[in-house]
Structures are given as structure tokens and as C-alpha cells.
């Protein structure tokens, strides 16, 4: 089956942004213009523009239209703290740095409650933005017992939460931490930054109902590459 039409339109606009045909600040087609060009409903054109805004590719302003955002500097903090696994997130692609089965005691992240000899799956990826510049480093450490086939998956596009759900793994809670960190030598090389640079890290723990942590995952954002924001409605008096 082909992609839904709204995804095709979104990818068309994304490719124009990636190629520079729609530079930062350029006005995107209105909902009406998308309807006329692609022969879609108002609901479909609205969904396209809303998803581009959610991904940080566009900024929508009431009565001013939709413009291309600086994709390197616009991240919705709420979406970053609690990402929707159904969405692809910020535009770009993943590059697998390493993927292996290891002892928990040797893994890149500490899995709370796991003994050092517990088998875990470790995955390290680098995210590249639409300009193929490093934007973040992702690390996952997952109990091997719940993810024995994870390394057989398409690791460039893997969403670990979806993988675990597809395997009917019990997940009771997801705890998110936002940590200020400094880059070590390895992170600095991967992100093209200086060692010791301050950065923001999102750390996620997936837990079962008995409080067992089955996955720890972190995302470290390249310093200076992102501007985090919160956009909230003004409360009425």
C-alpha cells in the first residue's frame, strides 16, 4: 500500500525545505492553496501544516500564515520531554554507531536494578538533521529478555517503544528526566563540538508494574543546535 496522501504532501514540502527551495522564513502554501494544488480536503491540508509545525519544520501564526522554521533551533520542549512514538520526530536520519548484546555492567548506560551480569541490548545512534549535520546522540540499553530480536530490526528507523509494544511487553510507566550534562570526548567528536560543552539530555526509563526498569534511553542534543520553547495559550481573565 502507498503512503497516505497527507504524508506524501508532507514529504514533498520537507524535500523542498531540505533542498533549500523553501529557506528559513519562506512562506508555505496556505491550507486553501494545498487543497487546490493537491485536490485534498481542508482537514488534510491542515494536518500537513500542523505536522510540519509539530516536527519543528514550520511555525504557524494566526492570521500571518505558516513559514519555514530554522530546523536547527526550534524544538517544542513538551514534545521533546514526552515524544509521541507514532510520529517521526524532528526531520533527519539516524546513523547507527554501535549495536550489540552486552553485560549490563559493561553497557553505556546503567540499567537500574539490573545485576552486572544481566544480558542487555545496547544501541547507539547519531541523529543527523536535514542538512546532514549532527543534531543528537541516542543511547538505548534494554533487557535482552524482553528484546531478544531487536538487533534483527531496521535499526536506522527503529522506535524501541513501538518494538516493545508489538512484542506485547508489559509497560506500566514511562519516566522522563531532563538532565544538564557536559560532553565527553566521544560525544564531542560525534556531535562536532568541544569536550566539556554543556548540553541538554533527555533520559527515559520504561518500567513494568512491579517497578522493574526494562529500558533506559538517552538523547543528548548538540550544544547550540536547538532552541527549546514552550508555546501555551494565554489564560483568559
Task: Please name the defining characteristics of this protein.
alpha+beta; two-stranded antiparallel ribbon; six-stranded antiparallel β-sheet; 10 strands; 237 residues; globular; 30% strand; 6 helices
Briefly summarize what is shown:
With 237 residues, the protein is an alpha+beta fold. The chain has helices at 5-19, 31-38, 42-54, 77-81, 160-166, 185-191, and strands spanning 58-61, 65-68, 75-76, 93-103, 119-128, 134-143, 173-182, 198-207, 213-221, 228-229. The longest helix is centred in the N-terminal third of the chain and has 15 residues, at 5-19.
What layout of secondary structure does this protein have?
Elements lengths: L4 H15 L11 H8 L3 H13 L3 E4 L3 E4 L6 E2 H5 L11 E11 L15 E10 L5 E10 L16 H7 L6 E10 L2 H7 L6 E10 L5 E9 L6 E2 L8
Parallel strand pairs: 3-10
Antiparallel strand pairs: 1-2, 4-5, 5-6, 6-9, 7-8, 8-9
Describe this structure in words.
This protein has 237 residues and is of the alpha+beta class. It contains six helices and ten strands; from the N terminus they run H-H-H-E-E-E-H-E-E-E-H-E-H-E-E-E. It has helices at residues 5-19, 31-38, 42-54, 77-81, 160-166, 185-191, and strands spanning 58-61, 65-68, 75-76, 93-103, 119-128, 134-143, 173-182, 198-207, 213-221, 228-229. The strands form three sheets. Strands 4-5-6-9-8-7 form a six-stranded antiparallel β-sheet, with helices on one face. A two-stranded antiparallel ribbon has the order 1-2. Helix 1 crosses helix 3 and helix 2 crosses helix 3 (42-54). The protein starts with a helix and ends in an 8-residue tail after the last strand. The relative contact order is 0.13. The model has no long low-confidence stretch (mean pLDDT 88).
Amino acid at each position: 500500500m502507498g503512503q497516505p496522501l497527507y504524508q506524501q504532501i508532507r514529504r514533498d514540502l520537507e524535500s523542498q525545505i531540505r533542498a533549500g527551495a523553501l529557506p528559513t522564513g519562506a512562506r508555505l502554501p496556505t491550507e486553501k492553496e494545498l487543497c487546490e494544488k493537491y485536490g485534498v480536503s481542508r482537514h488534510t491540508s491542515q494536518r500537513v501544516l500542523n505536522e510540519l509545525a509539530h516536527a519543528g519544520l514550520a511555525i504557524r501564526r494566526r492570521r500571518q500564515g505558516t513559514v519555514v522554521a530554522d530546523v536547527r533551533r526550534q524544538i517544542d520542549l513538551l514534545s521533546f520531554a514526552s515524544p509521541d512514538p507514532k510520529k517521526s520526530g524532528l526531520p533527519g536520519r539516524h546513523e547507527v554507531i554501535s549495536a550489540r548484546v552486552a553485560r549490563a555492567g559493561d553497557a553505556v548506560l546503567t540499567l537500574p536494578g539490573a545485576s552486572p551480569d544481566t544480558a542487555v541490548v545496547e544501541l547507539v545512534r547519531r541523529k543527523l538533521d536535514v542538512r546532514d549535520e549532527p543534531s543528537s546522540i541516542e543511547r538505548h540499553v534494554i533487557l535482552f529478555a524482553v528484546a531478544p530480536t531487536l538487533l534483527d530490526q531496521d535499526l536506522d528507523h527503529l522506535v524501541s517503544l513501538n518494538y516493545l509494544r508489538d512484542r506485547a511487553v508489559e509497560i506500566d510507566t514511562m519516566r522522563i528526566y531532563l538532565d544538564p550534562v557536559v560532553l565527553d570526548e566521544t560525544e564531542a567528536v560525534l556531535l562536532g563540538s568541544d569536550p566539556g560543552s554543556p548540553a541538554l539530555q533527555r533520559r527515559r526509563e520504561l518500567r513494568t508494574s512491579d517497578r522493574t526498569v526494562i529500558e533506559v534511553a538517552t538523547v543528548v542534543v548538540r550544544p547550540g543546535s536547538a532552541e527549546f520553547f514552550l508555546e501555551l495559550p494565554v489564560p483568559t481573565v
